[in-house]
Amino acid sequence: MATNSLSLSSYMLQHSDFLGKSISNRNTLSCRNAYFSFARCTLADSLQSSNGRLSASLLSNPNIFGVQHEKEGLHVPNKRLRIFSGTSNPLLSQDVADYMGLKLGQINIKRFADGEVYVKLQESVRGCDVFLLQPTCPPVNENLVELLVMIDACRRASARTITAVIPYFGYARADRKTQGRESIGAKLVANMITAAGASRVLACDLHSGQSLGYFDIPVDHVLGEPVILEHLANKRIASNDLVVVSPDVGGVARARGFAKKLSDAPLAIVDKRRHGHNVSEVMNLIGDVKGKVAVMVDDMIDTAGTISNAAALLHQEGARAVYACCTHAVFSPPAIERLSGGLFQEVITTNTIPVAEKNYFPQLKVLTVANLLAEAILRVHDDGSVSSLFL
Questions:
Q1: Which residues form the signal peptide (predicted)?
Q2: CB-CB contact of 160 with 129 (8 Å)
Q3: Contact criterion met (CB below 8 Å) for 136 and 89
Q4: Fewer CB within 10 Å, N- or C-terminus of the chain?
C-alpha cells in the first residue's frame, strides 16, 4: 500500500504543472486548494510509510505544485510568471511588477555601434509564462524591433508562453486602405509579432477594433477609460452640466460608451475634413454644448491639431469648459504649444507612453494604468476573464 501511495505522489510531483493547470482552468480557487491539500496529505502518508525516502522539506514549499495563493487579499503569482521590460517605458514596467509583488526579470538590452539591437535574458525562462512589456512609442521603429528581438530571445530560451504586453501599439492608424496603393501597416506589424514567436498580445486602447482581427494569435484588449472615468468622477461635475464630445466621426462609438458610464451624458460630434496626415480642418458641431462642461474623448493625441481645433469650436458654441481625455500621449510637435494655449481646463492622459519632463504643462494630468495592466496580466496567467475588468 505504501508503495502504491508513493507512486501516486511521485506521479503528482512529476506532472504537477499539468495538474495545476487543469485545476486552474475550473476557475475555482477553493476546489484547487482542496485538491492540493489532498495531494500533500497523500505525499505525507507516503513519506511516513516509506521511511522518508522523499525529502520532507518538499512539504514546506508552498509552490511545490505551482499553487497560486491569496495573501492579505492579494493574488501572489507563482514562480512560473516572469515579467521583462523593454527600454521604451521602464517606469511603467516597474510599477506593474511592484503591484504584482514581483521583481522585473534580468535582461541585457543594448545597441551595437550601427544601431542593431542585442538582447540576452540573464535568467532562465524555461517552461515559464513570460510577459514582455514594451510600448512601440517613438522612436517607433527602434522600439518595435527591440520587442521582436525580445520575443525571439524568449522563444529560443524555451519559454512556455510569450505574451507581448503593448500599452501603445504603433502603426495602429494604418489599419485600412483609404486610397489605392496604400499599405496596411497594422496588419504587417501583427504578422511580424506573430512570426517572432509571441503566443498572445495584451494591448491597450487600439486605434480601431478591426486591428484585433489582424492577429492570428489571441489578443486581450485593455481599456484605459476606467482610470480616466475615476479621475473625472472625483471632480463631481453635475451630470446635467456634462456633455461628452467625439472630436471626429470615427470616434463616436468610443465617445458613446464613455458617455454611458458618465451617468449617460449627452453626446456631441465634431465634423471635420482631413486634407492630409496630421492636417485637419473642423467644419461644424453636431449637438448642444452651450453652458456645459465638454469632455472630449480620443484614443491618442499626436500633434493635437484635431483636438485643439475642436476645442476652439466648442468655445465658440458656448461651452463653459473643455476637458481633453486620451489614453496615449504621443505629443509630437507642436502638440505642447497647442495644448497649453488656454483652450483646455485640463488635459487628461495615461502613462502608456512616457511623457518627457520637458513636455509637462500646468493643465496636464497623467494617470497610471499600471494596476490595470497588472490585473490583466494576472488574469491571463491564471486563465481568468480580462473583459470582466471593464463591466
A1: none
A2: yes
A3: no
A4: C
